[in-house]
């Protein structure tokens, strides 16, 4: 698993996520299923200004996905908070740098648009992973478990 490339996925329909969907469902995760459903029904295509969806590829196959949504401000003006969403890396690509490369692409893309990145996870391994990237726990928040000041 040497050359992992991360690129912005402008059109999710260009990528085959079938094995990723199957594996994520077998693990009990709904990330990929929700990503595909939201993309298909148009409710979240990561296509508003400042938003992006990324795919980690190895030999042309998708081994990871993840995106950035901008949270709308409650009362006028642009939000300075970005939400990391739908991050999933195939089991065989974990601990090989795919997740880190994916998150680095998301964080780099987010910098011009937001001052805070937020995410939610209940997975202990993901908790540790995000903390190694500089995210800190956000106790007392019902919708966010971790945040990172950019």
Automatic annotation (TrEMBL):
Keywords on record: Acyltransferase, Transferase
N-acetyltransferase domain sequence ranges: 4-150
Highest rank taxon of the organism: Bacteria
Alphabetical list of Gene3D superfamilies matching this protein: 3.40.630.30
InterPro entries: Acyl_CoA_acyltransferase (IPR016181), Bact_Acetyltransf (IPR050832), GNAT_dom (IPR000182)
Pfam families: Acetyltransf_1 (PF00583)
Record-given protein name: GNAT family N-acetyltransferase
Protein source organism: Paenibacillus sepulcri
